[in-house]
Amino acid sequence: MRWTSSSIPRPLSSCIAFFAALAFGGFQLSTSAVIRVVSSKSSHHSAEAVSNASRSANLSTGAHIRPLGNEGRRLAVVLPAMVREAPAGNLTTAAFAPAGLLGEGAVFNRTQSIGAAQAVGGVASAFFGILFIMLAVPIHWFNEERTVRSEALSARGLEEVISVEAERVSKANRGRLVHVQGRAKGAAYLQDPQFRDVAVSRCLKLQSTVEVFQWVQTTRTWLEGGRVRRCQPRFHAEWTTTHQDSLRFRKPSPENPRPPTGLRLGTATHVCPRVELGAFLLTDDMVNSFRRFEPAMQLLPQRIAAHGLTFFANQKDGYYYARPGFSLVRNPTLGGLFSKHEVGDVRVRFLCVPETNATVVAVQCQKDLDETFVPYRPVCQGPCIDEGHARDYRVEAGFRPLKELRSETTCCSTGGCAGCCCCACNTIACICAQEVVTEEICYVSDSLDPIDMPFRSVVKRSPWRVWNFRVMGLAAMFLGVRLFLNPFSGMVQGVPMLEVYGGAATVVFAAMITLATSALIAAVAAIPYRPTLAFRWFV
Hints:
Layout (H helix, E strand, L loop, with lengths): L1 E3 L6 H47 L6 E5 L5 E5 L4 E5 L26 H47 L1 E4 L11 E10 L3 E2 L7 E2 L2 E16 L2 E4 L2 E4 L3 E7 L25 E6 L3 E3 L2 E3 L1 H4 L6 E2 L7 E4 L2 E6 L4 E4 L12 H5 L6 E9 L1 E12 L2 E5 L12 H13 L2 H6 L8 H6 L2 H10 L3 E4 L2 E3 L7 H4 L6 H23 L3 H5 L11 H22 L4 H4 L5
Parallel strand pairs: 5-6
Antiparallel strand pairs: 1-23, 2-3, 3-4, 6-14, 6-21, 7-8, 9-12, 9-13, 9-20, 10-11, 14-15, 16-20, 17-18, 18-19, 19-20, 21-22, 21-24
Helix pairs in contact: 1-2, 2-8, 2-10, 2-12, 10-12
C-alpha cells in the first residue's frame, strides 16, 4: 500500500495574510461608503427642512441659505448685509431674518451627491463580494473533490476488484482491478556488481553490506560554568560502513589505511531483473515490497575474490572476511582472521529474499508483451464513457507519475508563493493536498491475504479536516453573497416570499444561495467519480 505525506507549504502564511487583508479592506471600504451615504441622507433631510422653512417665511430680499461644512450639520442664512447660523435640526421661522427678507428662489447647495455615494458603496460591496465568492468556490471544489476521490478509491475499488488465477491470463481483464495470489519466483540469475563470484538463483532480492575495521575518533563534551568543555579525543577501532579519514583527526592520532580501490562501503540492494507471479511479471517497485531477508551464505561459495582481496566465509556469524596481504600459505588457519581483527580488515555480509508466496491487488495491464500491473487510481468517468474507455484511462493514469497527476489540480504551472497568490485555486489546492491520505492502491504482500485486505489499510480523509474546509467555504460564500446583494437590499426585501422577513430578508436570501451553491459544487465534484453519491446533495 502506498500513500504520500507532506507538510504545509511555506506560502500558506502569506496567502492567509493576503486574503485577511483583502477581507478587512473590503469591509472597511464598504462600511465607509455606507457611512457616507447615511451622512448624505441626513444632509438631504436638513436641507429640505431649511427649504420648507424659508418658503414658509415668505422672505423676498434675494438672500439664500447654504449648508456649512462637509456634513451639513449647520446651515447659514446669507443675507445681503449679514450672515446668521442656525442648527440644522432645529429650524424655525424665527431662526431666520425678519419676515420678508428671503424669497422663494433661495438656493441650497448640498455637500455630496446621494446618488454618487450610493453608487460608490454599491460598487465596492459588489466587488469585494465577488472576490469572496471566487475564494469560496475553490475551497468547496478542492475539498469535495479530494473527499470523493478518497471515498471512491475504497468504495468503488472494493466493488470493482475481482480474483483471477495467477497461472492463467485473460486479456479481458486488462484495465481492471484484480486480486492475484501465487508463488513469486526469480526467473533470472541475480549477481552483485561488486563481487562477480556472488550470483544466486531463485531469489527476488540480494543485499550486500561492506564494512571496514578502522580507527574512530570520539570526543566527550560537557557544560561547565556556562561554557562548553571538550576533553582530549579518544580513538578506538570498530567496524564501520564509511571511511574515516585520519587526516581530519586531531593530532596526534593513529592512521587509517584507505580501502581498496573500487570497493564501495555501505549497504546495496539489487533486485532480480525478472520476477514472475505465475504468468504475471512484477515491476521493480513491487519487488521492493518484499523485505524478508535471509542469510545467503549457503547459496554462495566459501571463497570470494574481488578488488584484489580474497574473502573467506565464517559460518559462525555469516560474514566474509578479507585482509590486505593475507594468504593461506603464511597463515594456514583462519582463526586469526575471524577473531583477531586488524585495522584495514574488510568484511561483507550477503542477504537475500528467497521465493515466497505473494498477494497482489493492482490494475492488470500489458507492457512490452508481458502482463504486469500498475497502481489503481480513481479516474474521472463521465456518464457517456463506456467501460472499455474507462479501463484505458485507468491504465494510462497508472503509468503516469503521481506527482504529474497532482500538478493537474492547479490552474497554472507557476510554483512557490507566486503560484499561490496568482490564483485562489492554486492556494486551496496546495492547502488541501498537504495531508496524509491513500491516493493509490498497489498492494503487494509476501503472504496469501484476502481480497479485502488492501482496503482495510486505506487512509481516508479526516472528518474534522473535511468539515473545517466546508465551514470555511460556507463562511466565505455567505460573506461574498451578502456583500454582493447589499446594493440590491431594497429589491430583495420586496420579493413576495422574502418580505415577511423584513430587514433580514437579504441575510436569509444570502444563506439560501450559499447552501444551494455549496450543494451544487459538491454534487458536480462527485459526478465524475461516484454519480450515485451526487444525488445525496440534491435530496
